[in-house]
């Protein structure tokens, strides 16, 4: 096989999910689209670098790594990051939000106001509501307040998000209930920073955007790509970085972060030949892949 294309990640646009490729090319992903690609024979997955710079040593990285960075580049990438709490002087206003991923799974977070709901789509939030808006440090203090007072986490592993998608309530009102309850408790807390403006409850539901309604429950997810392996299936849904693919063995989830760092080539007759981790329970009313 040839050296192949290099994927630089999945992004969400106003029209839905888009795969980005090194060199600026984009592949729009629509429901029903056939997704098929192979990993170059004999390939080694290499570090994608950090902050727009290539890895100076072209280090090899594990197939199961979702970051696709060596230790040195991962450190550099997080050295100027809001998520890592290393920025204190960002002048932009920030939103504080509550995001819901499924029954019993709500998190609090912050995102730059100028990004709108892009961060929520990237995280695979099934529904969300803004809590307030203000300076970065006020937003960060509010995030900490909610974590301590309401015991709401600020991080949820993607594996847990995938697992709970199979148990999503069918009615939007039921999906919004936990966010509404936590929103009411959050805005009633007395210790909010004065510079953070509270925002009223307005639950935005992404089930339609993600294509999750009436999608068959996923039977497993791709654990890693391997040299010479092939991924193929029909795109039936997507949430965050996950593509839900209908295959001959059922719906399988592909975390597109596993694609970065590999040389990829077209596979017109693509079948799923990469390792797949079977879910322990496939019971539920909804889940989908690629």
Map the helices and strands:
Layout: E1 7-13, E2 16-21, E3 26-28, E4 34-39, H1 71-77, E5 93-102, E6 105-112, H2 118-123, E7 127-135, H3 136-150, H4 158-164, H5 172-187, E8 197-198, E9 204-205, H6 207-210, E10 218-222, E11 230-239, E12 242-247, E13 250-255, E14 264-266, E15 276-278
Parallel strand pairs: 10-13
Antiparallel strand pairs: 1-2, 2-3, 4-11, 4-14, 5-6, 5-7, 7-8, 7-9, 10-15, 11-12, 12-13
CA-based shape: globular
Please tell me the overall pLDDT.
Answer: 90
Radius of gyration, in Å, reads 20 Å
Tell me the major beta sheet.
7 strands, mixed
Instruction: Estimate the strand proportion.
Output: 25-35%
**Ends: how far apart?**
24 Å
> Ranges with pLDDT <50 over ≥5 residues?
282-290
N to C succession of SSEs: EEEEHEEHEHHHEEHEEEEEE
Structural class estimated from helices and strands: alpha+beta
Secondary structure: number of strands: 15
Helicity range? 10-25%
Number of helices: 6
Spatial strand arrangement across the major sheet: 14-4-11-12-13-10-15
């Amino acid at each position: 096989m040839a050296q192949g294309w290099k994927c630089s990640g999945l992004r969400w646009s106003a029209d839905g999910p888009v795969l980005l490729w090194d060199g600026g090319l984009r592949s729009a992903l629509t429901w029903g689209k056939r997704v098929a690609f192979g990993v170059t024979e004999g390939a080694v997955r290499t570090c994608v670098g950090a902050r727009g710079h290539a890895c100076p040593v072209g280090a090899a990285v594990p197939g199961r790594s979702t970051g696709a960075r060596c230790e040195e580049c991962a450190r550099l990438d997080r050295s100027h990051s809001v998520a890592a709490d290393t920025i204190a002087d960002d002048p932009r206003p920030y939103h504080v939000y509550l995001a819901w991923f499924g029954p019993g799974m709500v998190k609090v977070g912050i995102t730059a106001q100028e990004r709108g709901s892009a961060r929520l789509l990237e995280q695979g939030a099934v529904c969300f509501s803004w809590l307030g808006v203000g300076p970065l440090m006020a937003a960060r203090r509010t995030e900490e307040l909610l974590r301590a007072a309401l015991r709401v986490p600020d991080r949820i592993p993607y594996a847990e998000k995938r697992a709970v998608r199979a148990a999503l309530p069918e009615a939007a009102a039921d999906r919004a209930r936990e966010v509404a309850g936590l929103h009411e408790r959050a805005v009633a807390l007395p210790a909010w920073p004065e510079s953070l403006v509270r925002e009223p409850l307005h639950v935005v539901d992404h089930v339609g955007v993600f294509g999750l309604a009436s999608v068959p429950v996923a039977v497993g997810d791709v654990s890693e790509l391997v040299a010479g392996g092939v991924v193929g299936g029909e795109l039936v849904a997507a949430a965050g970085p996950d593509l839900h693919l209908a295959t001959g063995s059922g719906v399988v989830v592909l975390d597109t972060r596993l694609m970065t760092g590999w040389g990829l080539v077209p596979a017109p007759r693509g079948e799923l030949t990469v390792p797949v981790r079977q879910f322990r329970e496939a019971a539920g009313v909804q889940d989908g892949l690629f």
